[in-house]
Design goal:
The structure is a homodimer. Chain A is of the alpha/beta class. Chain A folds into two domains: 8-127, Roll (Ubiquitin-like (UB roll)), CATH 3.10.20; 138-291, Cytidine Deaminase, domain 2 (3-Layer(aba) Sandwich), CATH 3.40.140.10. The first copy, chain A, is built from nine helices and 19 strands. Chain A has a six-stranded mixed β-sheet with strand order 12-11-15-16-17-18, sandwiched between helices. In chain A, helix 1 crosses helix 6. The first copy, chain A, is globular and about 55 Å long. The N and C termini of chain A lie far apart (56 Å). Chains A and B meet through strand 2, strand 3, strand 5, strand 8 and helix 8 of A and strand 2, strand 3, strand 5, strand 8 and helix 8 of B. Strand 8 (109-111) of chain A pairs parallel with strand 5 (47-54) of chain B.
Chain lengths: 292, 292
């Protein structure tokens, strides 16, 4: 296959935590870490699009993934460059051919449930019918490995709290772990990262990263937008330590996405597409035998 | 004072949870409660404004508070009626005089950090400078009473999880407790409720509910929007079991709002305006004596 033309990205990461003084219950002034949070205004071809509030770990990937998940850009090759400048809190996106009809496509607002980018442009729900997720299965052992990998991950959450984390796995192997003040930023960052990846294909060439063997993990709830974004990325599994909302459940059932919530230690609940999950109940029981 | 003209509201509450089948780690199909989540499209004088995703407990108060907190309506008397019809998922708002300049005022979008209504219209941050919070203090004992009242509160969270709760207190007395799939909906619902309340004044008449002696509680993080919304309501205290983000901290310090996070059992951290908090460190220590 021909080479993919990737966008040129700046590399404007920024400190993720800062220290502030707080007074505890004993009346003592104590220094605590809190997550940073910065406004980042996105300009597409010099037109102001939106302001995102972000931790600032991977702003270029965030902007790329935001454009992807909002369906404002159809191919990574449409983006020529993304330049982030924290001095002015701006991300300048240059496209190769402009965005058709951008006024109309950003006119309709839906204020949604989840953390972070509660606003989605356009009619994402209408696209849901067109999504076909690849056939794929995951074993219970792999679910446990994923939950354990997240448990061991060093994070801003551990040092400062108040952020959401998302990760992308190839089966049980963690590929990327992202945190942000809103989990939508975190999943958008993953979507941006995926667009930049190339994988070897059986013919020895390169191809865009496949989604069949991928698993999406979020510390936040499985709301409709998280399920939609996972489905948009073509990822057939979404795992969370938290629960699911009705719309998340409905969308997951509609597109055949396997959602697994309340995943801590050996416990979990598979809310949708359980046929994608290869059960190994003896693994759940093994812990109990150890305890007993 | 002359009588306040309150809006006429429908009373369209709806079931808050539903049962779905999930498969647990032993491979057993098990019935679990999940929170309901419904799209509610708001029409103001027949013009479509926004679609909110909501649990559906108090949709009319939610819509009223949304209009208030987005500064689209300046006085409760400007709203003639709010009719919610779940059959079509619509809230029809009728105003007495229309909303001036509604096109321009809903044109600017900021996608924010928090759960729920991540999108705010206009330049709320610009209003921050104009906010003056009343002088008020809270004792450590009252903080503990508030945390305890929340702990004892029956809730959808306890039965189904995956929702955020907010409450308004008069000092340590809980006035209203609201849950929603996004905590912004919950705080907007409280703002709507406050607008409908009348309190006795010293002259024996009625006046709009005062904010001086009020305390806002949220189960979610103290993000900038939560702090802004508390300040907009004139409430000088915000308490959370969770932490604070940098922008939340910055805005709270700017307006002199007392933020108290990590509030569980006897522990808490006061991040801003500690002069509003009357410390009683002996209360923090008393639990330790009991334990020892």
């Amino acid at each position: 296959m021909s080479e993919v033309l990737l966008p040129r990205l700046s590399n404007a990461s920024a400190p993720l935590t800062r220290e502030v003084l707080a007074v505890n219950e004993f009346g003592e002034a104590t220094s605590v870490s809190i997550p940073c949070e910065r406004p980042l205004t996105v300009y597409v071809d010099k037109r102001e699009l939106v302001t995102l509030m972000t931790l600032g770990a991977c702003p270029e990937l965030l902007v790329l993934g935001f454009l992807r998940n909002q369906r404002l850009v159809r191919s990574v090759e449409d983006v020529e460059s993304i330049d982030v400048d924290w001095e002015v809190g701006a991300a300048a996106v240059k496209t190769r051919h402009g965005i058709d009809d951008i006024e109309a496509r950003t006119a309709k607002r839906v204020v949604t449930t989840g953390c972070g980018q509660g606003s989605v442009f356009g009619d994402l729900m209408e696209e849901i019918d067109q999504i076909g997720l690849p056939p794929a299965q995951l074993t219970q052992a792999q679910v446990y490995d994923i939950v354990n990998a997240i448990r061991l991950q060093e994070s801003t959450y551990k040092s400062a709290g108040s952020v959401h984390g998302c990760a992308l796995f190839r089966r049980e192997q963690m590929l990327i772990f992202v945190e942000d003040v809103g989990r939508h930023n975190a999943v958008d960052t993953i979507a941006g990262w995926m667009w930049l990846q190339q994988e070897s294909n059986p013919e020895g060439g390169l191809q865009p990263m496949a989604s069949t063997d991928k698993v999406f993990y979020t510390t936040g709830r499985l709301t409709s937008e998280m399920v939609i974004k996972s489905a948009q990325m073509g990822v057939p599994f979404a795992i969370s330590r938290s629960g699911i909302t009705q719309m998340g459940h409905q969308v997951a059932a509609q597109v055949g996405l396997c959602t697994i919530g309340r995943a801590t230690n050996r416990h979990f609940l598979c809310y949708s597409s359980p046929e994608r999950l290869i059960m190994q109940p003896e693994l759940a029981a093994s812990r109990m035998r150890v305890v007993a």
